[in-house]
Amino acid sequence: MILVADNLQITDKKIDRAISDMNPEPIQDMVKRCELAGAQAIDINSGPLSRDPEKKMAFLVETVQSVTDLPVFIDTANPKAMEAGLTVNRKTAIINGFSLEPAKLEYILPLAKKYNTDIIGYLLYPNSHVPPDGAERLGVAVELFSRFQDAGIDRERLIIDPIIAPVIWENGAFQDMEILTVLHNLPDILDFEVRTIGGLSNLTTGQGPKDKKLLLERTYLPMLACAGLSFALLNVLHSETMQVAKAANALTSPKIFAYELL
What is the CATH topology of the domain spanning 96-261? Predict the structure, then answer.
């Protein structure tokens, strides 16, 4: 399970201001902190970028890659901003992402072929609604994979996000247990060892005590690891969560266990 930092996002006021001012230092500082904390990749969540989206995404990718060799996940729904980021990429970039939404199929998915890069596919209906259970998610996965293949992209480029549900939803806990089954069954349904990713913070979206939110995240993360999750998108500056992630990786690794891994 590869640990992807979700710390670089505009909900952090310092990051938001740095993007607006195109000031690289706060962004570079955050990336360095994330890598020091154990991040193995960096998600660049730029938000809507209403002004100069292409210029600002290019700035973000160049700024991040100026201080790290870690892969970057370019996280935007704006296809022009996405392509701007891919154009200046000089290391490893992953597109985050596409779904069955018509605009994403038309404008985001082709970029994976054009730039020969991995891409995340969300298990969402074409109207961007979340499927209610595991069976519906698997049905969406089959359709998503079919559209992916129609685009002429190597299947090894696909990473699937089953969409972790906020636990405060009426059926949130049920959906999140269903996701574990989805992760188990995807390789059989698609007939290859497809990689998967989950946004851990989705679980605790909404109001709630911070300590209990972190407890839920630390509890769910090993369940995801056991189900075979390939990438975990999380706040890598939460040290206790990172300790749990390392322990989960050590227990699920095919390698001989050693306490030095923790």
Answer: TIM Barrel (3.20.20)
